[in-house]
Fold this protein.
Amino acid sequence: MADHDQPPAPASPGAALVQLGDVPLADLLAGAGDGVLAHVLGTLATDDPGGPGDLSAFESSF
Amino acid sequence: MPAGAPPSAARPEPVRPRTAPAGAAGPPAPAQAPAPRVRQLVLKVHGRCNLACDHCYVYRHADQGWRQRPRVMGPATVAKVADRLAAHVARHRTERIRVVLHGGEPLLAGVAAIDRTVRTLRAAMPAGTTLDVAVQTNGVLLDERFLRLFHEQRVDVGVSLDGDREANDRHRRHPDGRGSHDEVARALRLLGRPEHRPRYAGLLCTVDLANDPVRVYDSLLEFAPPRLDLLLPHGNWSHPPPGRRPGGTDTPYGDWLVAVFDRWYGQTPRRTGIRLFESLIALVLGGRSRTQALGGGATDVMTVETDGTIEGTDTLKITGEESTRTGYDVFRHSLDEALRHPSLAGRPTGPAALAPACRACPVVSACGGGLYAHRWRAGHGFRQPSVYCPDLFRLVRHVQAVVAADVDALRRRATGSGER
């Protein structure tokens, strides 16, 4: 991209870079099959935003 | 900085005065923020290792504090850790807490010591708190005796493996130079048996540019891991990772990760979880990260060394001793006191922790500045882009494009506006 192009608007933390749009997540999931994206969409559907999640301390290892 | 360029193309952020000296309380958290708490406690049950991996941050990087500490965490220290942890979860009404038995090599502590440690921790937990326990091992000592214990005590097992024999033994060697792959493979075949598989947490693999990415991924799949963690080798602007030219625009690690991502993402049904990639997909869709390497979330990991010393995220060892030395220990201080230290919850998080160039970056919501330890530059501190900035930028953009195309296809399918 050239220097004189308009820079893209910064996305604040937590902002989606890809919008799911107004289609219900369940409808998207229904056609998603059993691949990686379906799995992640499934976790999004069940994620508790205030919960502890499953952050890894394993990665604290070398 | 050109538009669309990663933030590392900007000049480094000048050093700012520390908000608090090491060992003192950090800046107060914003009034509306939830009280910081420990979600995961990394317990160094043994301070030495039976391997001599040349990429290990514990023994080969700046902080050499392990030399002064006892080899094994003694019963009195474990008991004090249990007391402190119980008080902490009771105060915060924590429903779930995780302890990771770590080292060095934790299995060097032996079956009896690990049994005693887990029993002590479980006995101290207040009613209503679930204690999840995991162990991260190099696998060399993993046998039926340990696995029997891990079933009895409900301990999940993560094993470190860098790929096939050639890839793994490039770094993961015994002190006499022998590779460890064959022993680890034997352990993984044991762990993968149906009777043991419920305790199999996953594999941890450190990326090495000398190893072919797809071959590494395929070789790890042979052990049918429930989950993979791909780690970038630890480094920073002052001690750069192998093959990473600080400030350069090349993306060797980004290219490596993209190759694995494409292989993994293209496999249907999904063969395994890769935490880094699943977190990134979730983040580009507005969800949450499950790795400290992305997303810029608050730190909730605390480390207790074999002598009871409390430290922050273990990976900060690569920046030197001052970054992790809190001056706190479990004998004199509560976990809440220690949390205030700048290497723990007292450190800035979110946008305040980022370099100005990162705050203006179009992918900051997914990258989050990368792993905190990878941002450090001597004389400038942590408010810098990651030393891996161009690689992260490349990976995020690639994943964003792949996910956008697939979400668009799903949306058209769901609304009947596209081909079936």
Chain A is about 25% helix and 0% strand. Chain A touches chain B through 49 residues (CB under 8 Å). Helices of chain A lie at 25-30, 36-46.
